[in-house]
Amino acid sequence: MKSQPFLTDIKTLRERARQHLENGAVTPGYKADRETVIKLLNEALASEIVCVLRYKRHHFMATGLNAQSVAQEFLQHAAEEQTHADQIARRIVQIGGEPDFSPEGLVTRSHTEYVAGVTLIGMIEEDLIAERIGIDSYREMIGYLANDDSTTRRLLEEILTMEEEHAEDLVSLLTELGS
Question: What is the mean pLDDT of the chain?
Fold first, then answer.
């Protein structure tokens, strides 16, 4: 059994809070390597932006008998990926970084690729591949963060849940289309 109290005493908490105000939300209790976390988050941001662009293209390029419902699914996924990008950018700022929205190098920072897809099935498959890459990437980032940055970990866990739902949606579309 530990002999120390579970919580830091109030006086110490108050004293620590007055130090390094310029660090905002990043207190001495933050255990992760901020530079590494910011790099990972900027890679995730680039990946989400690439996904938004790919889904938007697929939305507008979808043609064929089942195209309307699939195009709507693409549009919904694009909006959700944009929300993820916004959440990640906000977190980067919270931990003292700068979100990298530069189009220069976007695809090299991204874990996913921008593959246009020619047919409706091809578009769905490319989006599914990207979602599977995202799922593995987010799992690895979550594992890296562990308890060192629980706020970022929880954000990534929420995004991971949505990426898994996207993958499930895409598999269902492929099944419906007989692929």
Answer: 91
